[in-house]
Amino acid sequence: MNFYLSLTAVYFVVYAMGALALNLQFGLGGIVNFGFIIFESAGAYAAALTSVGSSATGVAQSETYFWGTSLPFPLPLIVAVLVGGLLAAVIGPATMRKMRRDYQAAAMLAIAIIANQLVGNTSSFLNGGNGIANIPAPLRSVFGSSVAAYDWAYVAWSFLLGGGVFLLCRWISISPFGRAVRLLRDDEEAAASLGINAWSVRMRLFVVGGMIAGLTGGLLVEFIGAWSPSAWNYQETFVLLQAVILGGVGSEYGAVFGALIVGVILLQLPSFLPAIGYPGLIDSLQWILIGVVYLAVLWFLPQGTFRERASLRLGGRAPPEKVGPLGQESIRITGPSGATTNEGPAQ
């Protein structure tokens, strides 16, 4: 039971970081990334290959992959971050340069499915469908034979990284760059008139999201000790997307809340239920429940649990204030020096 609780805690952090990264891309930038799981998986494979060593030094001889080494902690995680960002820098221009947003989403989904099938059916590359196993846990020797102590120390390490990712995403969200991203999301023509380069802004956001995704993959694979194509089906992206929508698009707190509800309560806790019916029934009902919750949120709570702050959506403008004897509304814009300008009656 101790392992399952610590595993659930690590999964929560992984889902929360993934939801934060997808919230950066989709919630702030309007980038519909249906292939998010690719970048998480790339980070997982990168961390595994830089941890496990060659097949001749302790890994089962049946496992085959093109390269492997053994780097000290925390270098595999750093490699995972870099690989996730590099992959985003490669895929981004191919899918976002000249495609409409709906086509971008379809292209990302197609790439995710193709990549999964390609890796799963090529045994000489990343060991095919069998994946990579026996990945050593970082700093395991420090805790000796105490498995429980190590598991909870890893949970603490995960929460530390998760807190850092939350602060990074929060800083990006409230920074001038974040306000430019929101303006680009809401009104691309207005952003272009202010000299904002849509391509450059979206690519930077896409790469940052890819780096966070790579970190989540590396963090998870170092704890569970294995990774295979079955661990990164395209459905995982929709779990994160639902977490963002449930929590509130554009809200960092909402992304974490959505990860708790969808990633843990709906996706992980049912695995503790006793087996009922035929084998696999609980898994099927689980995905049906996730789909029903997704539709219910879109219908009854389209803006999510935590709504995006109005001051952020308006790019720093103060809320309308009633003035004059007739109660007309005017909008005040606060300038850099603190002076206010009356823009006249709001329409």
Total domains, how many? Answer: 2
Regarding CATH, which class of the largest domain?
A: Mainly Alpha
Q: Strand order across the biggest sheet?
A: 1-2-3
CATH architectural arrangement of the largest domain: Orthogonal Bundle
Radius of gyration: 22 Å
State the low-pLDDT regions, or none. Answer: 55-61, 314-347
SS strand fraction: under 5%
* Amino-to-carboxy terminus distance: 60 Å
Based on CA inertia axes, which overall geometry fits? globular
Average pLDDT works out at 80
CATH fold naming of the largest domain: ABC transporter involved in vitamin B12 uptake, BtuC
Number of helices: 12
Report the structural category. mainly alpha
Count the beta strands: 3
Task: Please characterize this protein's 3D structure.
The chain has 347 residues and is mainly alpha-helical. It has 2 domains: 2-310, ABC transporter involved in vitamin B12 uptake, BtuC; 317-345, no CATH class. Helices cover 61% and strands 5% of the residues. The protein has 12 helices and 3 strands, in the order H-H-H-H-H-H-H-H-H-H-H-H-E-E-E. The protein has a 3-stranded antiparallel beta sheet, with no helix packed on it. Strand 1 (321-323) and strand 2 (328-334) form a beta hairpin. Helix 9 (235-247) packs across helix 10. The protein is globular and about 60 Å long. 38% of the residues are buried. Mean pLDDT is 80; it is low at 55-61 and 314-347.
